Predict the 3D structure of the following.
Amino acid sequence: MIRRKGLDICLLGILILSIGCVPISKTTLIPGSPDDLPGCYVIFPSGPWESVHRIEATFRGGGSSSLLGVTKGEPSERRLQSLLLSPEGFILFDAEHRESEISVRKAVVPFDSPAFARGLMEDVTLLFLPPQVKPTTWRKETDGTMICNWENPDDTQTEIRGSTGSGWRILRRDKQGEVIKEVVLNGPFVNGLASRAELHAFKPASYKLRMTLVQPSP
Amino acid sequence: MKKFLFICVLVTTDLIFAAAAFSQDLSSLKEASRNIRSVKGEFLQKRHLQILTKPLFSEGRLFLYAPDSLRWEYLSPLRSVMLQKGNTIQVYNFSEGVWKPEMTQAIESRRMVLAEISHWFQGRFDQSKAFKHVYSPGPPARVTMVPGEGINRFIQRIEIILSVRPGVIDRVEIEEPGGSRTSIEFRNVEINSSFSSEFFEKP
């Protein structure tokens, strides 16, 4: 009996450990109820908005940087303008994303490479704009958790999962289905914006952004 | 012709007297600032950006030991500090409960900013390498810093509004070419109080 209990505990331990090791698996869903579809968009601001975030960036190798991020969004036009400021208020980077075009107005070293501009605007888009197409599949669980999947035109996939009570997670997968970016959003939501967000990029560059909402408007 | 000559003389005389008064005021300001050994104070910074309907507020404090030790510290919304002691400049950000050296540093641009702030608080406006200065007796007395070639791509002009207390600055207004501007208001300024020199070495 004692031996059986020991075996059970051992199996439980292995199970817990293996759960910790599995990659974030893709959830297979069927198209959900039209009534649940708006739930796929609740984490994105719907009207014009602007925000100031405190950003703590950590890069592979241990380097870190603290910046202020100022963003203005016009969701109906799929337009985002994003500024990075030094703690003193110097504008280090200023760019606009409109539809799928990026125009950089100002970028100082080391924020002046096209790859940086593309990566930053991708992050801002992932955080604040829903994918351009309708979700392919979605489902509302009995506990209120929403799970929504999008197949993007560039063959990448976006998955959103969460609820108001438990927080939200956005996953971006590449063509092979591997997670390249993960966002965790935590409330309370103020004017449609999460108070805290953490973005973890895995590929091609590895970095982490911890964002705290400082000033939402209007 | 006589009338024109009279006006010319009058204008010239006025200009000479104005120049004399200007020189006297600026001299007394410099004289008052010569006695400044240290400055300690708090500031409220309002950053007006065209992208934002409301200004971005930052709060901080400064410590200065004449001639070249300065601590310029932001307490919110980002906790960050620039330290200058002689030629050494260090920048730190407070993140995850500890002070971390700033990765980008941008030492040269920060060196220029810290040098300008040090000059202003010591009344040494004429020692600026990047700006020419114009003094207006007011009230309130103010010094307008006009940038030279190169800097004017980033800063259009700086207005330093002086307090009635000799050597104390009330407010600094910085205008940028795109229409953005920054206002820094100083409060609780103490002149010649003493504090540890470690303030300029460690975050």
